[in-house]
Amino acid sequence: MRVDPSALSAQLGKAIPAGLVVIGDELLLREEALDTIRQSAKAQGFTERDVFTIDKQTDFAALDQGAANFSLFASRKIQEYHFSQTPNKDGQQFLQARSQSDDVDTLTVVVLPELKRKEMESVWCRALLDRFMLVPVVTVDVQAFPRWLADRLQREQLTIDAAGREQLLHWFEGNLLACSQLLTQLKLLYGQQPISADEIRNVASENARYQLFDIVDLAFNGDSARVLRMWQGLLAEDGQSHMRTLSGVLARDLQQLAQLRFLLARGESSANALRAVNVWRQRQGPFMQACKRLSVADIQHLLQQLSQIDQALKGVLQHNPARLIEQLLLRIAGLQVAA
After folding, report:
1. Which of 59, 210, 240, 265 has the highest local Cβ count within 10 Å?
2. Beta bridge partners of 21
3. 328 with 249: CB under 8 angstroms?
4. Measured distance between the N- and C-terminal CA atoms of the chain, rounded to whole angstroms
5. CA distance 199 to 205
6. Which residues contact residue 332 at a Cβ distance below 8 angstroms, ignoring those fewer than 6 apart?
7. Same domain membership, residue 122 and residue 10
8. Are 163 and 134 a contacting pair, CB within 8 Å?
9. pTM of the complete model beyond 0.70
């Protein structure tokens, strides 16, 4: 049986299954699904919980014996098995055995990363899903994110104007956990009062995370002086973390910019091109400014430089990634920077 996370609480309120399998890489949805499972199980008498983290070194024979020993000390309990990667042969056999257990006093919860179709159709996985309830927690893509945000705002009873929603879509674009954290903060501050984009920016201004998104728009607008000041300030605060985050933001935005510039070069109108590549309304100005300065070839060259930054961050290239990012931002802003 497959149950969407949004329907999980209602389903578990009817009956607790023999076990559950939570599959996927979306951290927020996974943690919320596990919280729902734990709360529903506790309400039905599963008062204790054991958590087993599975990795390459796990001894499944010892794990099986340990799980059996734990079950001697409580009448009803949850046993969670968290796999960091697709189960190996021993892990698959272990899970098949767990799925055949008739112990009604133990609720088995298996947590797995995203599985490929071939793995989902394998013998061990089919055996698991024949007995256990499947809860998919898949990554919410760019197209689905606006719907997720609308549902979350309704659930939290938050009223945010159109510009504010666009701001959230721009900042997070699929990062559910970070978005949820900001929504929680907004709810504490404003409750059910209407919230504007300016109020959202004021709340977020104290967190450098959101400046990383603004710095790209400044670069697209050609404001090299502010780009340089902001980047130096971010480096002084938490350079390593900000470099990795900004690298990801730049990869997304430069790829989107390349698609936009290509459509414009092909003769598409700006309105149609912006719509085709899903540029949020409040970012259309910076994107169009960048397109006036940069050709398709220029943007492809910037993406190649970004690949070097990624290698430097991983230690593959012996270059200063902070300096490389600074050079890239200034080149986006229109400055000629020596390598």
Report:
1. 210
2. 110, 134
3. no
4. 57
5. 10
6. 216, 219, 220, 254, 290, 294, 302
7. yes
8. no
9. no
Beta bridge partners of 51: 80
Comparing CA positions, the residue from 279, 274, 335 lying closest to residue 302 is 335
User: In sequence order, which residues have a C-beta less than 8 Å from that of residue 17 and are 6 or more positions away?
Assistant: 1, 132, 133
H helices of 15-73, where? Answer: 27-43, 60-70
Residue 183's domain comprises 145-206
Residue 49 main-chain phi, psi, to 5 deg: -145, 135
Q: Give the residue-averaged pLDDT of 179-202.
A: 91
The number of domains in the chain is 3
Q: What is the dihedral of CA 129, 133, 138, 140, to 10 degrees?
A: 150
- Whether 217 and 288 map to the same domain: the answer is yes
- Domain check: are 265 and 238 in the same one? yes
Write out the two tokens for 283.
């970012």
Cβ neighbours of residue 257 closer than 8 Å, sequence gap 6 or more: 220, 287, 290, 291, 294, 299
Lowest mean pLDDT, pick from 118-127, 172-181, 226-235, 320-329: 172-181
180 and 264 housed in the same domain: no
DSSP for 239-266, please give it. Answer: HHHHHHHHHHHHHHHHHHHHHHHHHHHT
Residue 63, φ and ψ in degrees, nearest 5? -65, -45
Secondary structure tally for the chain: helices H, strands E: 16, 7
Residues 220 and 325 in one domain: yes
Quote the mean pLDDT of the chain.
88
Checking phi first, is residue 222 left (phi over 0); if not, alpha (psi -120 to 50) or beta?
A: left
Whether the CB-CB separation of 151 and 60 falls below 8 Å is answered with no
DSSP designation for 64: H
